[in-house]
Amino acid sequence: MTSSFPASTVLGYPRIGPDRELKRALESYWEGRSSRADLEETARRLREDTWRRLAALGLEGLPSNTFSYYDQVLDTAVLLGAVPARYRHDDDLETYFAMARGAEGIAPLRMTKWFDTNYHYIVPEIGPDTVFSLDAAKPLAEVREALALGLETRPVLVGPVTFLLLSQAAPDSPEGFAPLDRLDDVAEVYARLLAELAAEGVGWVQLDEPALVADRTPAELAAAEAAYGRLGRLENRPALLVASYFGDLGDALPVLAGAPVEAVGLDLVRGSAHGVDALGVEALAGKTVVAGVVSGRDVWRTDRDRALATLLAVRERAGRVVVSTSCSLLHVPYDVGRETGLDPALRERLAFAEQKVAEVAELAALLAVTPGHHLPGQPAAQERPRTFPARTAEGRAPYPVRAAAQAEHLKLPLLPVTTIGSFPQTGELRRARAALAAGEIGEAAYENMVRAEIEQVIALQERLGLDVLVHGEPERNDMVQYFAEHLDGFAVTRHGWVQSYGSRCTRPPILHGDVRRPGPITVRWAQYAQSLTSTPVKGMLTGPVTIVAWSFVRDDLPLREVVFQVADAVREEVGDLEEAGIRVIQVDEPALRELVPLRRAEQGAYLEWAVAAYRWATSGVSEHTQIHTHLCYSDADQILAAIDALDADVTSIESARSRGRVLGVVGGFSRGLGPGVYDIHSPRVPGADEVEHLLTEALRTVPAERLWVNPDCGLKTRSYEQVEAALANVVEAAARLRERRS
Ligand code: GLN
Ligand code: ZN
User: Fold this and answer.
1) Which residue of 47, 160, 172, 531 is surrounded by the most CB atoms within 10 Å?
2) Does the reported pTM lie above 0.90?
3) Cβ(540) to ligand 1 under 6 A?
4) Is the CATH number 3.20.20.140 carried by domain 21-369?
């Protein structure tokens, strides 16, 4: 029944378009500026271009169904008929976008990070009564579309186990219900889908099961075993590739090895840290191993000799080997060839999606002509042992000592009101930045605009009566890119967009060399803002973990060391801010949780060095200087101890949308705490009564002496109108509470 798997493939490909065509088409459709036919035509063209390009680059196994109007997990929910009733609409596309983005009076489904990437997926809602029904229109249409171009493809789908493990229980589910309880029913729908695909003449199907590289309970593994046993035993089905990625399968490898499926995909970049021998790939003998030796998570060229050695080692142990990427190429930009502004020496070392596909094809050709046990001529480069400077934070004075010194120095009122840093980024500022980059206006003209903006932001905050002011970050395009542009060791791209969620993309900087701070970065702006007022102005910096998490990072040094290099630079900046008379300094770490390893066994070590790097960055200042940090996720419970260990004098944290939970976990902190009182993700302006109520609630867990009043996050995406009204109410609420307490 089975045709053999093609010699080379990729697990997935970017879909937003080399020039973000899909972003533009989506946004214009949403705003009613273009028709559905326009959107569909853009999508069709992107798919066609992708398949043709992959084929032209010499790739043999082409994936399909990797396109998405928004998100592949949401696509899977639709495929399974798992659409909560409140979103149902006569028009399927409207239903789809309602789940993703909300509709008139209906909030969207929750969105969260896809494993440890910066891609966000839509979290499906599954309850005991969810009725599953197959809607195979999308994968079938893509298969046919490619076939019409003369190209045979392999539909890619999120696998049933991962789909359910990533889902959340529907709101009305009984206590103890877990979506995975519905695996039998979901597997039934996949069985029907496989039959339909077989009837269509599809030879291979890829089921993605990245959830299997995280720690799984024996019950979860047994469920996976049962599901794949069932799908594998179907008589009428295409051959199955079960793809794992983002790590090694561990205990799940024997489960897949024992399942009646034809191929298993392994991440041999991240998953082979302990060498191929430790993986137990012998168990896969008799199956095809789709060997992910070209990284889908970084932008570096593949070490060809090392990759070939890995492929040979796997072939020797397991038999049939196909060359592939470690995961979908969704997480890298399209084409480094367009980055003509990069230093050629750096560009040589880079590979984006196109280049990675060419590498896969080249490795497959090499593997085909390399006899059995022959190892490539050159041994893999030996890593030179390096020693790294030890950086131990001398530790600041104990909190009570600091708190007293700061109270004396800052003379803040009870319940001080502040913001998280950014103020609205006006279209005018964005245009000026683009004009500066294009050489249409000079540096001086641009800086005058920034200064004028700072003057307005300071005046506004003084008028509103805030207690710790900010300069508003008008000079920053992005909280990471801005620092990357001012530090040695980083490069920024022009077209290197990567999908973050839906139509949104980011352009991660590339950290390619030793990081150094050639000079102060933010100091003159903070200093200028402080010169306009006697109220303390807070200096704003991005923390070392976040700068690294939102960049593509060199792979020739341990991540920890790279983070410490960035921490060195942040520490210098913190010191310069203090010296310039800035008395409050905030170092944001919104990505602290993002880098937490998927395996529990590795989490402790990560959190330890991540915290140490933060403390190194922030502990060089005197006890008078107040250090703030900001985190923006509500599920802080997972890394609570680490947040506490950051030892910041004040921690602000997102909480407007999950109030009770956040206070429940962070209420016990022994230092300053600012649980957000204003949800900046929504255009809604909170009333003073509402904020007062939130603060009264917070006062049940946080003593007034340590409670801060602030929004959930930066105000960059809001309008001045909304911000002014909201902050006025926040200040008013704080004033009423102070009044009541005096
Ligand atoms: N200081 C940043 C801002 O206000 C923080 C943003 C964030 O937490 N993501 O924009
Ligand atoms: Zn935030």
Assistant:
1) 160
2) yes
3) yes
4) no
